[in-house]
Amino acid sequence: MGSSFPYMTANLNSAQTAATVGDRKILLIGQMVSGTATSGALNEGLLSDADFNDKFGRTSQIAKAGRALIKELSVSRIKPTVDVIALSDNGSGVAATGSVAFSGTATVAGSIIIYVDSFNRKYSLTIASGDTATTIGAALAAAITADLDAVVTASNSTGTVTLTAVNAGTQGNTIGIKVVGTVTGITTTLTAFSGGATDPSLTGLFDVIDGVRYTRIVYPHEWGVSTLTTETESRFNVDNKILDGVGITCEIDTHANIVANAASYNQKTSGYMSNAKISESGHVGGAIFESPLVIAAIFAALENRLTNGSNISSIVTNGQNIGGSFFGAIPYHNTPFINLPTIETGHDFTDAEVTELENAGVIVLRNNPANTVLICNEAVTTYKTNTLGAVDTTYKYLNSVDTLSLVREYFFNNIKADLSQHILTTGELIAGRPMINKEGFIALMMGYYATLSGYNGDNSYVLLRSSEADRAAFRDSLESVDITLSTGTITAESIANIVTQVRNIIINFTPTFE
Predict the structure, then answer these.
(1) Do residues 246 and 269 lie in contact, with contact meaning Cβ atoms separated by under 8 Å?
(2) Contact predicate 191/283, CB 8 Å
(3) What is the pTM of this model?
């Protein structure tokens, strides 16, 4: 081929598009019993029930919680990533036990339903007149043994069915038992689970996720929260990275004990959920009849709300059916949980108790007014006071933490992208060269503010207030920008004019007679 002139090169560069915030990512932590996974290893990108069953053993608490999480997320094709760290039982661990004891002989035909650990683990016993306690106990033990997803084993001795948690340790102490129905001549006595002791060692638990961000971490509250909160608090503000996320736990206990426990927590990255402890002849365990880890996992699945493009029609009541970053400021309260059971009448916390729990930094789920579905009350963190001990509401609500986190991430990602390989100067900018000075930096920041507030017509975020006064205040705060050429450093002080959630409405009506 002959020479071709002029000699020319045509390069293709990436389009100049704004950087977005990262994807939502959930980390589930718990105990395994068997399977292909290695204890303490990070298992990434779990997508199905089969993943959890094969890797961790289908009767483990973590497989059960994982299946519930996947089910909650499955309404959407676009969803958060789910990773798992599963630990084997401690070699010195002791499994919790409980029992269902039948006595007497049936004088009529009838049926009794026994629930163990979950409203999904339902064992229906058909009883004939003349059936003895031993016969009925044998039927229950056989039904539980045949259940491939049961988190307990069962053995019958003359009508007393002893239930033993599959996983050793304190998680087993939270397993509930419930009986529905009676048969003339038969008495059913429940003994609550207890005796579970010695959890897995947590040393180095989070080493495998060093440098990896998780926006929600689901964790067994029975293990104690110090290992979790130490990790999440250390990730809140770090150099040159975005690592922050919120840990979610759930505890079954009395109102008094939960309030006392919450008083000792004071973390902006802690979501502490509560479940009233019931101790009655026909019901022992949580008022929400589900394991705490499952409840925490289902709550964490609300990360679908913050996932751009996700289908959230089943968890919202405000007409916004597609998830996105703007949900950072939309309240969690009134969110329905269709995959959790409602609370029986008389088993819920009282209104006064709920107020105390929320003031202590505890998330409460309650029935809706019609008692047809479980919904979320205010979603709060355990943060109550600053380092000086003064009352501080900055991070009181989970929405505030979400909003501030998203704002920071957007600024962080776009500054990284826009100022890559730039020249810093205190002088004028030269056309056609990648340079930045004080005025250019302020203009750049104002552009980010316009996007995050929706001022420029982009409603993808709506996290900052959109008004001339708020924009002016933001700009004024940036006037203190300091440039140090010797180290190539830009130092700025700014403010985050965040929006907040509708929480209280007060209307005073005055009667008139005209």
Answers:
(1) yes
(2) no
(3) 0.95
Return the closest-CA partner of residue 269 out of 249, 285, 247, 284. 247
Name the DSSP letter for residue 237. Answer: S
Among 104, 296, 100, smallest CA distance to 179 is for: 100
Which residue's entry shows tokens 């298992």?
A: 43
**Tens-place pLDDT, residues 30-86:** 999 999 999 999 999 999 999 999 999 999 999 999 999 999 999 999 999 999 999
Contact 64, 299 (CB under 8 A): no
Cβ atoms 77, 304 nearer than 8 A: no
- 288-306 pLDDT, tens digit each: 999 999 999 999 999 999 9
Provide the residue type at 87 as one letter.
L
In angstroms, the CA 4 to CA 177 distance is 85
Could you check whether the bond before residue 6 is cis, i.e. omega within 30 degrees of 0?
A: yes
Q: How far is CA 472 from CA 252, 377, 414, 443, 465, in A?
A: 49, 36, 21, 12, 11
Dist CA 296 CA 221 (whole Å): 9
Q: If DSSP codes are grouped into helix, strand and coil, which group holds residue 358?
A: helix
Grade residue 9 by pLDDT with cuts at 50, 70 and 90: confident
Q: 474-491 burial by CB neighbour count: b if 16+ within 10 A, else e?
A: beebbeebebeeeeeeee
Residue type, 51: D
> 444 with 494: CB under 8 angstroms?
no
Q: How far apart are CA 139 and CA 404, in angstroms?
A: 55
Which stretch of DSSP H or E encloses residue 433?
Answer: none
Bridge partner list, 100:
161, 190
Phi and psi (nearest 5°) for 7? -65, 125
Q: At 128, which amino acid appears? A: A
Please state, in angstroms and rounded to a whole number, the distance separating the CA atoms of residues 158 and 138: 8
Q: Cα–Cα distance between 295 and 348 in angstroms, integer?
A: 16
Location of structure tokens 């409460």: 364
Backbone angles phi, psi at 206, to 5 degrees: -95, 5
* C-alpha dihedral (478, 479, 481, 482), degrees to nearest 10: -160
Using the 8-state DSSP alphabet, how is residue 296 labeled? Answer: H
Residue 40, C-beta contacts closer than 8 angstroms, at least 6 positions apart: 85, 86, 87, 204, 205, 208
What is the Rg, in whole angstroms, of the alpha carbon atoms belonging to the chain? Answer: 28
